[in-house]
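dude i think i finally got it to work??
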Amino acid sequence: MAYNLKQISPLDQRESTALGVKLPFSAKGVFTSVYTTKEQYKYNVINFLLTDRGERPFNFNFGASLRSYLFEQIETQTLDSLESYIRSQVEINFTTLKVKDLKIGSDSDRNSITINLSYIILNTNENDNVIIKIQNI
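look at this
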């Protein structure tokens, strides 16, 4: 009989060691620590999707530059292009993640795009998702 064992990242074995910080930053302590690789992957993906290329010092190729899509006409062709762009960028920049599902919704009256990205962490076979709403205010 085969057993489906869950792999645990060595970084998750030390419960008192923080791996990163949560987004958005809180007002009280500013930084809230993250202690699991699953959570840190989630915040890394959020950070990547919300960052524009050239915005991060010393790493000018980091970021998905999604805000530029806000000024495009929101139609099926644009949303399909955005979906394939996000898929390719996540695969290039996060080699240990596999996109499981990606849904992009739009509200043309509010000029906003909602991204629902579900992914699998390949090292541990854990599932997670990120929901981001980008809006031109």
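The chain has a mean pLDDT of 84.
im so relieved honestly
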